Structures are given as structure tokens and as C-alpha cells.
Amino acid sequence: MSASGDGGSSSSNSSSSGGGSDYCNGPLVSALPPTSFESSSTSSNSQSSYFAKLNRRDGGGGWSPRQSDSQPWLQVDLRERVEVTAVATQGRYGSSDWVSGYTLLFADTPRAWKQYRQEDNVATFPGNIDADGVVHHKLSHPIRTRFLRFIPLDWSPAGWVGLRVEVYGCAYKSDVADFDGRSSLLYRFNQKSMSTVKDVISLKFKSQRADGVLVHGEGQRGDFITLELHKGTLALHLNLDDAKLHPSSGHVSMTVGSLLDDQHWHSVLIERFNKQINVTVDRQTRHVRSRGVADSLEVDYELSFGGIPLPGKPGTFLRKNFHGCMENLYYNGVNIIDLAKRRKPQIYSVGNVTFACSESQPVSTTFASSSGSYLLLPVEAPADGLSVRFQFRTWNREALLLSAPLARAPERLVLLLVAGQLRLTHHRSPLQRSDIAIGQSLSDGQWHTISISVRGLQVSLTLDNDPASTMELRDPAEPGYSILFGGCPPALTRDSCRNPTMAFQGCVRSIAINNQPVNMFHVQQGLVGNYSQLQFDFCGIRDRCLPNFCEHDGQCSQSWSTFYCECSGTGYTGATCHNSIFEPSCEAHRQTGSASGYFSIDPDGSGPLKSTLVYCNMTEDRVWTVVEHDSSRGVSVHGSTPQRPHVARFNYSASTEQLRVLISRSEHCQQEVIYRCRKSRLFNTWDGTPLAWWLDRAGEKRTYWGGFLPGVQQCSCSLEENCIDMNFFCNCDADRQTWENDTGMLSYKDHLPMMEIVVGDTNRTGSEAIYTVGSLQCYGDRFLWNAASFYQESSYLLFPTFQAELSADVAFYFKTTAPSGVFLENLGARDFIRLELSAPSAVTFTFDVGNGPVLLTVKSPVPLNDKQWHYVRVERNPKEASLQVDQLPLCFLEAPPDGHYRLQLSGQLFVGGTATRQRGFLGCMRALNMNGVTLDLEERAKMTPGVSSGCPGHCSSHNNLCHNRGKCVEKSTGFECDCTHSAYGGPHCKTEVSMSFESGSSVTYTFQEPFSVVRNKSRQSSAIFAQSSKSRENVAFGFVTNQAPAMLLTVSTYHQQYMAVILAQNGSLQVWYKLSRDKKPDVFTPRPHSLADGLLHKVQIHREGKDMYVKIDRDINQKYSLSSDKELNTIRSLTLGKVTGRVGMDEEVMQAGSRGFIGCLSSVQFNHLAPLKAAILNRGSSLVSVLGNLAESNCGVLADKSSSHSQADHSEEDGNGKERLKNAEQSDSAVIGGLIAAVVLVTLCMVAAMTRFLYRHRHERAQPMAAVKEKEQQQHVMPPCLDHSCRSDLDLHSAVGVRDSRKEYFI
Asked: Are 818 and 836 in contact, with CB atoms under 8 Å apart?
């Protein structure tokens, strides 16, 4: 039932006389009198502000300010509040003066301006390019205002500022009520209570305070609605349920908007239908749904506006009242203010509510520059003390707020904002000081009031309404003759004024010195004090976290000029938490060299879905992804009937949507269902009605129990034609008293996995069913090698428009022999995005979001058209854009803080070409991923001329030709494995690389600083750069030692973080992580017993965020949780063996580091680096430091073989010992036969040796010089190692042969 009242107006809440923006476009300036125009200055009388009307030619033909005016502006008074829909500008007639760019301010009073911002929060309007052309701008959203101010930013390069303007719109009428903070309006219903299933509340308001109740209503059963301002944010609290029956189920609270206490108008619309609630503030809308039981809102007696009066106590309110003005206040179509103005009986007024908006408000000043803004004010007639009072608001955590020199130089008081806390310091001398520190989180964008008082020997500091904090002085303080607010003027010496890190950026108002308010208008006119880079009558604070550009639940924080995203704990990284830190599949984990174990995967990458934990089973030929559920054990079912069946639901470790994406990405998926039965049928034998079934991923009922194609009422035995009774399609339907089996493998991907099973025929005597539902298992990654070949320059693949307004990431691999070509392009009306091979060794990313074209180029030191696979990844978001090619330095560019940020595309996406059919790409592309979605190039290529599915070559398939991170390189006669980034060597990167360490030995990498990031330019890089790990580490190595404690590996950063893997005093392996300087390290001991046993042990460590997985030898992965998911930020060095002189390491780690490592380290891998191989290959490099005696060794291989042989022998003894004893009597003949065979073998060996000797003797006589050369070469060949002690000294300066063996060919 909607509320209504006698005589209530039910017109719309927009009361523009034009009837709509299409008709609200009349000129508003042309008829204004001269008094409606003001300006900051005028160059001459003929160029005064009155001549600034569009197309006017009299006088000087327009307005021009003085040449010395550093902050010119033109102001227009429209005489009353009107609706403005458009503006137009023109230069000064017949001159070379015009404005090429400007901002627009608006206000109801000329002492409180607000900056108009278009879409994307852009404040700048493009202006003129000549003196007489007219540039017209239709406002993206109309404004209701009386005053407009044009602020020129850029002007004619050949002249000066010249301006003529016109404003378009229409009259605006409204009903206004003014609340003084102690008043309210009560709207009383015609009946005792009002119950509604639909409510619409609309209003506009401007507030003098950050807190206050706008609307409130409640009912006796517990229903309520409250709309209030809280710290400048609008909060809605709503409850639809009976408070006694459902205490909290129907309670909804939500907040919208920010900085709404800026003394400017804001519109509010609340719409509720049943449980759905929509709240819109200005142009931001939030949706929420009540989880309660009831659908209706039951309010008793009345709704109050402006406050919550306490019944029976006039003038007393339960909460802080609203202080400000409301306009066009409607409740369910009823104009509340109109009823109040006409004194209708439904409205009761509490306190003093007037119907004209009062404009008495404090005047704000903006300190805009982080280095040059300051305000210097005099202290008139210093008395026996000093008092200063002012208000400020800012987002910056560090700032200089105030500096007050005292009479005795260099004595002074300095007020700083330090980490969001106020600190008042009394400096007696450079070495003598005392402090007061109060408050916290003061950089929250709220207004805060500060009072400083100096009286005699006491200085007091008061913040907001808190008690004062004081400090005592040794001598009475006498005030000086001036006070400085904000930054330091250039004229002051560094000793008398210093900015801590930056000057104050923010807003200041209500300054009073010695209880005398400072007239900021006089300051602006130059009559009082001095200033620089201030904006008067205007608070320019913005909430850069609204809208929130941080994705995936990232936390937004901000400074005055930009925003930051805290991605900790989200599983994502990047400037806006856009990029997943997890691999997309188990297949991708194998590509990084990982072994079997539990891993988090994120199949949709930067898409909306979170990561999920799966088990990756890395077999020789396939990689299986295993998703488990909560009911993997066998279940026995008795007593179920079709009417009361047994029902079991399976909860998987992944959500339904995650399962869908994972299954879609896989080549094949399956799930085994073991079903055994005894007198329990699956289907009714008479009419075929199913007695058992299961539900698929979509909740659909399925009655088949095996196969890769969905069938009806069939089991695996019918597919294989081996059912025990061929009259039935399932063994169980034979209804026998013996146990039968209908186990099947479900493999139709669209139906997997099984979500629920229903069994309904086990209630007869002797009936029973036992089922076990296995885990979901998938293999293959359809997208990792999804590829297309482009053969014609005019050919391309078409896809739907790339949806990437706020964030865009594109990644793919390519190989080509062409010198250039466009990889992809998508156009809009003005915006576009293009990615291309611009030169044989350069990739260029070009885009335009409305601020002009932006180009990022990465240049490679080697050609990229070498017919090898190269990786490209680009990203663009409101904060920055970046381009990555292979392992080359990242190229990135920060976005302008106040520019356009929405990429608006409309045309189709062209892959491999452009809309003009020119400069198309010739070659292969694969694994094209855009915003977490991999495009199916192969499927689209099947229907496109000039393009074919797949790519030719050995390296263009998912066959794992190169192992352990080895890179497959195409050759004309085959392929080779480039093992540069692998810890292994050999033709297929499977040969272990080992080194023996003696006492004091170590290998240390020093990563080059700075981090490999290039700002808007590319540079070549052949070195190892300081690494940013993105909260992810992959570590693998093998070791053999008898020493404990020992240091195996340690990684340290420039920020006193470290990771260390050590053997403790008792020989147990420990993993240490210290990610925060001020917190204790995380220490984990995966295996408590000693590993210093002389045997080879393999260790794998994998970290993603807070999750760490450790695998030792053949153990299963053990999962551990770190206390932080911070990344190892800018890695300094990695050390194997002895560590000395590390700052910040804990004592136990230092003890292990000082002992070093004695033994063998094998195949060490840290992310994409292979330390042992680099020590051999990077001879003489300043980045690799080798201390002590190191030697190449194959101890890892031998230890592995020895271990394998010993295990095999041991098992053979255990398994065959009894059989040997049993057959001992039959062994005599075998022994005799063996002796005869041995004699024959020895004879043959002697003949072969004699023949070889004669041949070599003849060869040496014929070629004596060749023998000398061969002997010289043999001196450089290492003898074969026959035991663990065999090794050769490593010479890093002459390892040419080793270096050249990095590339091994397979033909």
C-alpha cells in the first residue's frame, strides 16, 4: 500500500520547465546585464568581462586578463539557479587570443566552487584553435547552479587568453527545506501503520556536516529504515523481518558515495521492490537483496526527515541531526516539502525548518602542489602567547601542516602529519627538541580541527573534540611575526623550514590566529600575507577510490594524486590486482618444471573466478588434474524406496563455475563410479522408470552410468556388450541375489562432474547397494597449444568486440619470418587498441582511450622473426599500461591522473590483420588469451581462407619434447632443446648438472638493480635483473651431505627479506621465510628426521601467495600457510653454500650460513634461473661470484642410480630369497653352463683386443702427427667417474667447451 496524503503533489522529482534535456537548451548568457560578469583581472576597459558574450564584436571583442595574471578566470552570474546542459566558447574577435583548454567550476554562491567533471572524471574541456570559431560542448550530465567560472588552462601560442562564452539550459524550479541541525519534518500516515512492498524515496541534499540523519521510520515489530550521512558517506539501514522471530536475517546495511559533506548538491534515489533494494547517489548505483523472510516494510505512525526526534521530549533527538538543505523530497510520489510549505496536517515540523537554503558556510582553500603550495600569514601584535586554529582534510599520510618561528631564532614550532598522525615539535636548536604526537588515520579525507595554544611554559595541541595534549617548555615562548601553512617558500633557508617528504596537499578552512579569523578574500587580493599555488573558494579533494578500480577484492587506498591497490591475500597481483599469481592449469605447471603435487590453478586467469586447489599428477605421457570431493569412500545403502530414496550430494573443492571452466579447458575428463548391487535394480523392469540416477553439473537428471556419449538407461556392460543377462542394459537389473557390478567411467564433459546420486531400490530383503564416486580427473590443456597459421597478408580471424573498458590484458605466443605485421586490432568510434610486430626486432603496443594515442615499444637485441616462439603480454588499466616480450625488460607507462580511462571499443576484433586488410601478420600465433578468455583460433581458422588450424613444426604441439623448463627451438632438419633456463642439460634437458662443494665454498648471484622496468622506452638487456617474484617461488634441487647444520640455499632482497633452506642442527630440513621486516620469520620443518645421511634427496618448494607446498623425495606434497603473502620484493642475491655478512637474518640461519655446505648439490632451479649452470656458463661475469673449491660432478646421477640399484637389490632379496633357497638343488647345471660361456667370452675378447692393437699400431705409423694431436686432446678430457669421490676441478675461465654445449641438436 503506497503512502499518500490530502493535497499532496505527485509530480516528478525533476522540475525543469523545459520538460527534458532535449528542450532545455536555450541561451542563458546573451541577455545578462554587465553586473553578471566578473573576472580575476582585465587587460583594458575594452576587454572587460562584460564583452565576453558569444559572437559579440563591440569593445575589444571579448575578455582578456592582464598578462601578469597567473590564475585567470571569468565568472558568470546567471541570476538564479538554472539547469545548464551545454557551454560554448570563442576567442577574442579579430585577434590572436583564444583559450585552447579550460575547466569549469560551478556554485550556488561565489565562495564555494565545485569542479565539473565529465565522464571518466575528466575535468578539462578542449577549447578553440582560432579566434572566431565556436566550440560547443554538451554536458554529459546537466548541472543546477547559479554561478559558473571558466578557468583557462591553455591558450593561443601566438597570443594570450581571449574568451567569449555562452551557456545553454533552462529555468529550474524546486522545493527546498533548510534544516539547522536541531530540526526535522515528520510525515504522519493516515492510519496507525503503513505496510509497503514497494518504496521509492528521492531527494537532493547538500550538507554542512559529515554526519546526520536524512530519513527514518520504524515499526513495533522491528521493521525500520534509516538513511543517514556517516563520515561523508551515505548509509542505508533496512530491516524487513520481525525482530523477535528473525533477529538479524532481514537486516541490510550498505554505503554509497563519498565526500558528500562538500556543501554541494547530491541526488539520492532509493528503490525497493520486495527484497530487492537499489540505492543511487549521483550517478553511482549499488544493488543489494535482503536475505530475510518478509517482503514488506511496516512503519508505524510516521516517517521523519532530518532527524529522529525522541517521543515525548520535544527538541531531543536520538542521533545527530542533518544540518543542511534538502530539495525535491519525495516519498512514494508524495512531495513532502510542498506539503510542509502549505502547512498540510500530515506534516509536523520539529524545530526551525525554513524553506530557503541558507548559504553561510566556511570558505575552503586548496593546496594543490606537493612542492610549491604555501600560505604565509602575519601574526599581528604578538601578545604574551599564541593560538592557532584551523581545519584540514587530505589523503596524504605525510605533510608539513604548519611552521611557526618563535621570537628567539632558531626556535620554532612545527606541525607535521607523519604516517597519518599529528606531531607537534618544539625545536629549541638543531639538537634539542620535544614532541607531542596525537591522533591516527588522519589522512582519511575527513575534516579535522586543530588548535595550538602557546602560553608561558606550556604548549597544548587539541585534535577535533579530544582532550588537549600538552608539553612543558624550559623557557617562556614568545611568538614570532608570521606563521607558515603548507610547504616551504623558496626564500626561506633549509634550516628554518623543511618539507618532510612533501608539502601539504589538501584543503584548509576556518583559519584563526589569536582568535581572529583570517579573511581569505583579502589574502587572495594580496592585501594580507603571501601565498603560492593555492586555489581559493574551492576544495579540490577527490575520492580516487570511487569508483574502485581494484579488482578481485583488492583494497583501495589513495593519496592526493593517485590510488593504490593492496592485493595481499587476493591471489592476484598488479597495479589493480588484475593478474592471477597462479598458473591456469596443471599442464602449465609441468611447463615450469613442477612434479606431481597439490597446486592452486586459476583456469580463467584474470577473469572473475578465484583459484582452486587441485592435485596435479604428472605422468610420463599425460598430466592429470584431479579435483576431489567430500565423499570419496564407499557408501552402503539399505532401506531406500523410490518414494524415500537415498540421496547424497558431493561438494567439490571447486565451485560449479570453476569446474565448468576447468572442464572446458581440458582435452578429456572422466569420473569413475563404482556401483555394486545385490537385489537392487537401477531401472524398473516393467516400465523402465529409473530407480537410481544422478544429477550433472547443471542439476539435470541423468540415467546412464558409463561412456563418453550421454545415453538413456544404460551401463558400461551394454556398451561393451558383456552384461550378465543380455535382456537388460545393466548387470544390476538382472536382480540377482549375488553381488554384481555396474562400475562405469563417465566421460561426457558437458555433464561432469556428478553432483548428486539417488538410489531407490534397497528396501527388499537382502537388497543392498554399495557405491563409490571417484574424483573428477582431466588431462590436457586445449588452449595451451591452440594455434593458427596465417598465410596471406590480407587474411585475418574475426571475433566479437573485446570488452575491456577498465582493464585489458592480452597474452600470446608467435613465430614468424616476416619483418612486420599486425597481431591484433580492435577499433571504436575514437578509441582503439593495436598490437604489432613493427620491425624485425620490435613489438609495439598502441592504444587510445581518449587522451591521444599512446605507444609502447620493446626492442629486442636479437631479431624476433627467427621462426622461433616468442611470448608477448600487454596490459592496460586506469593506472598504467605495460608491454612484455619474452624475458626482456618490462616497458610501462603511467596513466595521466585526470585523463580518460575507459577503453570504448565497438568494432569486431581482428586477429592476424586489420580492418584495412593491410599489414597483416604472416606466421603462427597460439594461446591467445584476452582478459582470462582464450580465443579458439583453431576452430575459427577452419572457416577462414588464408588461415589454417595449428602450426607446422616439431615445436608446435603439446608433446613434451624438452623437459625441465627446456625450450624447444625449431631447426630446418628437426629441433633442439635450449636448456638455458633449465637446471638440466642434455639433448632433452634431462641430464642432471651437479657440483661438489668443499668447506667454505659458495656460488652467489647478484641481481642487477634497478628492477628491469623501462618507463615508456625500451632498452636492451643481456644481464640478470633484480627480480620481483610476484608472491611466487619455484625451487627445486637435489643434495647429498653428511654435514649438519648446513646452508643449502638462501635468497635475500633489498628490503631485508629473505628465504632460506637449511639443514638444522639435527639434520632436519627447514624452510625459512621472512617477508616483513618487523615480524618474526615463518619456519617450517617438513621432515623431522635427519637428511644429512649421505644419500641423495630431492626437494621441491612451490609458493603461491600464502600457500607453500614442499615435497621431499617421494613424499606427497605437504601444504603450509605463511603469515603473509607479500612478495620477495626486488631480490638482491641468491647464494648456494656459505653465507657471510647478511644483515637481518636470524641467528639459526646465520649459524647454518657460516657453516656453509659440504657435499653435492644437483640441478638447482630457482624460478627461471639455474644457478649451477650459470656458474659454469657465465664465466667471468660480475653477477656470479664463486668462492672456494668447487668441482663439476655427476654425483646426483650416481647417487640416484646407486639408490635405485640398492632399492632394487633390496626388494629382489626380499621378494626372491625364498625362491632361491628352494631352487638351490637345480643350480649345478646352470653353474657348469656359465663357466663354459665365460671361457668362450674371454677368448673372443682376447682376439678382439689383439686385432685392435694391430690396427692402431699400423695407424700410428701412417699418421704420427695425428697421434700427437690426439694425445694432446686426451689430456683435456675428463676421465670417467667411477665413484662419488671422482671429480675434476672447475675452471670458470676456460669452460669454453661447457659453454658451447648449451645447445644440443636433435636431427
From this structure: no
Give the best-scoring range by mean pLDDT among 50-64, 485-499, 1202-1216, 1275-1289: 50-64
Provide the sign of the torsion angle of the four alpha carbons 255, 257, 260, 264, taken in this order. Answer: negative
3-state secondary structure 403-471: EEEECCCCCEEEEEEECCEEEEEEEEECCEEEEEEECCCCCCCCCEEEEEEEECCEEEEEECCCCCEEE
Helices within 365-404 (DSSP H only): none
Closest C-alpha among 37, 116, 50, 42 to residue 79: 37
Residues 6+ away with beta carbon under 8 Å from 464: 448, 449
Spatial distance between the Cα atoms of 661 and 669, rounded to a whole number of angstroms = 12
Q: What are phi and psi of 1218, to 5 degrees?
A: -65, -35
Amino acid (one-letter) located at 896: P
What is the rounded average pLDDT of the residues 1052-1081?
91
Provide the β-strand partners of residue 777. 626, 670
Is omega for the bond preceding 1045 within 30 degrees of 0, making it cis? yes
Q: Under DSSP, is residue 50 helix (H, G, I), strand (E, B) or coil?
A: helix
Q: Which three cell numbers stand for residue 97?
A: 587570443
What's the pLDDT tens digit per position in 472-519?
A: 988 888 888 899 999 888 766 555 666 666 789 999 999 999 999 999
Residue 1181 grid cell: 661475469
- Rounded CA gap, 174 and 324, in Å? 16
Cβ pair 607, 804 in contact under 8 A: no
CB 1117 within 8 A of CB 1109: yes
Q: How far apart are CA 194 and CA 299, in angstroms?
A: 5
Return all residues near 458 (Cβ < 8 A) that are at least 6 apart: 470, 471, 472, 473
Residue 193 Cα to chain centre, angstroms = 49
CA 96 and chain centroid, separation: 49
Q: What percent of the chain has pLDDT over 70?
A: 85
- The residues, any chain, with a CB within 8 Å of residue 1024's CB and separated by 6 or more, are 1005, 1007, 1008, 1169, 1183
Any bridge partners for residue 1014, and if so which? 891
Read off the pLDDT of residues 437-448 as tens digits, 9 standing for 90 and up: 999 999 999 999
Q: Provide the pairing of β-strand 1013-1015 with 890-894.
A: parallel
Closest CA relative to residue 1097, chosen from 1044, 1153, 1139, 1148: 1044
Question: pLDDT digit string (tens) for 1206-1256?
Answer: 444 443 333 433 333 233 333 344 433 444 444 445 455 554 555 444 444
Displacement of CA 939 from its chain's centroid (Å)? 31
Q: Which amino acid is at 310?
A: L
Beta strands in 1043-1172 (DSSP E): 1046-1053, 1058-1063, 1069-1074, 1082-1087, 1097-1104, 1107-1112, 1118-1121, 1131-1137, 1159-1166
What span, in angstroms and rounded, lies between the C-alpha atoms of 1078 and 1144? Answer: 10
Say which range, 95-99, 450-454, 971-975, 1108-1112, has the weakest mean pLDDT. Answer: 971-975
Q: What is the mean pLDDT of the chain?
A: 84
Check pLDDT > 60 for residue 1271: no
What is the C-alpha end-to-end distance of the chain, expressed in Å? Answer: 85
Residue appearing with cell numbers 613493427: 838
Cell numbers at 957, concatenated: 604441439
| Amino acid present at 47 | Q
